[in-house]
């Protein structure tokens, strides 16, 4: 049974009407509470369980928790601090997207997967330590985390997804481990405070806009393993012309679409 306590606190037990087969499911009742405590015995927070709960300030997670579903806490704009317990293995797509006042997120080493856009638009998030079991930082995982200053990427990561750290304006220091072999398009685009970067030796291609708009980026170390650099990979960076001159022999130019004026007029 669920318990209603004073000061807008809700305790959800495993036998609650909100829980089905150990999975906590969405309900309009959650909208009014400032603090929710999820009791032991619940193993999954279901997709969209607390979506748009804009009054929610704090969540207590159980040790039994294994998975946080897709969009589970999307747009919980009053949420400021999240401590995910050891034992959780998956954080779903967009789980904390739009939690614009979230400043601290503790992710345990038990997590092996963080979904696309999981922390996108968490504007106040300042630092993140990515668990050692993560092999891929997925698309837009931390996109537009404008106050993110520090990120620790472990040696387990082999791929950094498209726009993974796009528009992290205050991110000034990133160490990409040697385990990384692929950095996708626009992964660090718009990281305006980034001044230097070392590309790992296993990377073979620097894709379009990977560091585009990193306007203070002036020092880049590119290994011999890189055989292709797209022409706008470093667009609007301090180092743009220097790289274009030094690596012209491996530059790849994207074909621009041509339009027939007559056909356009007819349209």
Name some characteristics of this structure:
4-stranded mixed sheet, mainly beta, 6-stranded mixed sheet
Question: Your description of this structure?
Answer:
This protein is mainly β and 267 residues long. The protein is 5% helix and 21% strand. It has helices spanning 240-246, 261-266; strands at 3-5, 9-12, 19-20, 23-24, 35-38, 44-45, 58-60, 67-68, 81-83, 90-91, 104-106, 113-114, 127-129, 136-137, 150-152, 159-160, 182-183, 196-198, 205-206, 219-221, 228-230, 251-252. The strands form seven sheets. A six-stranded mixed β-sheet has the order 3-4-6-8-10-12, with no helix packed on it. A four-stranded mixed β-sheet has the order 1-2-5-7, with no helix packed on it. α1 links the parallel β21 (228-230) and β22 (251-252). The radius of gyration is 22 Å and the shape is elongated. Mean pLDDT is 93; it is low at 263-267.
In which range does the helix fraction lie?
Answer: under 10%
Uncertain stretches of 5 or more adjacent residues: 263-267
Enumerate how many helices there are, as a single number.
2
Mean pLDDT: 93
- Measured by DSSP, the beta-strand proportion falls in 15-25%
Coarse structural class: mainly beta
Overall geometric form? elongated
How many strand units? 22
- Numbering strands along the chain, what is their spatial order in the largest sheet? 3-4-6-8-10-12
Radius of gyration: 22 Å
Largest sheet: 6 strands, mixed
Euclidean distance between termini CA atoms: 63 Å
Element order: H for helix, E for strand: EEEEEEEEEEEEEEEEEEEEEHEH
